[in-house]
Amino acid sequence: MSGDTNAVQGGRRISAHAVCAAIRDDIVSGAYQPGSRLTEELLARRYGVSRVPVREALRTLESEGFVTTRRHAGACVAQPSEREAADLLDIRALLEPLGAARAAQRRTEAHLKVLRGLVRLGRERAQGGQLGELRPLGDWFHETLAQASGSPSLAALLVQLRRKTAWVYAAAPGPRPAPPEGAVRPDPAARAMESWAEHGALVDAVARGDADRARALATAHTERALSEYRLRRPIPVRTSKHSVNTASGRN
């Protein structure tokens, strides 16, 4: 099956894209630590595929910045720098409001139906204290909002930026800062409720076709989210197990 980027598993073909998504998810979740080697043989065994789609997946992940190739070591998980983390925050702060404004102009009724359903579920889970279920709902919300922009290139970039920001800040070296003396740690449940209220207001603006309002709300939401990243990992800025044959659903 040389030259074929698909693998056969359970009587059906598994694409290199699915293998790539599986490896990427494991990198983002921390299953593979920065600097750790990614050998084709072990990855193929882990995901139950041949080495051909694994090789293709590693090339894609290298182009995305999740993987790097070292002499005498082969493919390894990339080690993000402080500058890269700062750049990602700046780029997200510019592009997410643009995506929201475009969504207000180009969204379909199908997009609105999904977005409203996700806001309802997010508020219910946050109110019920089911905080562990909010991250996938948030990912799904923002991916749908990006798709509603009507620009496949912008949507793909926004999704990749969110993944890389979460990964970079989780993987960045160095101790996490202690809170200032006397500071009160934010209540995660209260912040979750606030965040989903912001999502709801954004969907309302998108539904009305109010691009300026959608942009302003997305800017405020993004700045709050990115401020939380900076508090967890204060990086200087210039400006402001897993099987590939299972379906996956996608703050």
Automatic annotation (TrEMBL):
<dbReference type="InterPro" id="IPR036390">
    <property type="entry name" value="WH_DNA-bd_sf"/>
</dbReference>
<dbReference type="Pfam" id="PF00392">
    <property type="entry name" value="GntR"/>
</dbReference>
<feature type="domain" description="HTH gntR-type">
    <location>
        <begin position="13"/>
        <end position="80"/>
    </location>
</feature>
<keyword id="KW-0804">Transcription</keyword>
<dbReference type="InterPro" id="IPR000524">
    <property type="entry name" value="Tscrpt_reg_HTH_GntR"/>
</dbReference>
<keyword id="KW-0805">Transcription regulation</keyword>
<protein>
    <submittedName>
        <fullName>GntR family transcriptional regulator</fullName>
    </submittedName>
</protein>
<dbReference type="InterPro" id="IPR036388">
    <property type="entry name" value="WH-like_DNA-bd_sf"/>
</dbReference>
<dbReference type="InterPro" id="IPR008920">
    <property type="entry name" value="TF_FadR/GntR_C"/>
</dbReference>
<keyword id="KW-0238">DNA-binding</keyword>
<dbReference type="Pfam" id="PF07729">
    <property type="entry name" value="FCD"/>
</dbReference>
<dbReference type="InterPro" id="IPR011711">
    <property type="entry name" value="GntR_C"/>
</dbReference>
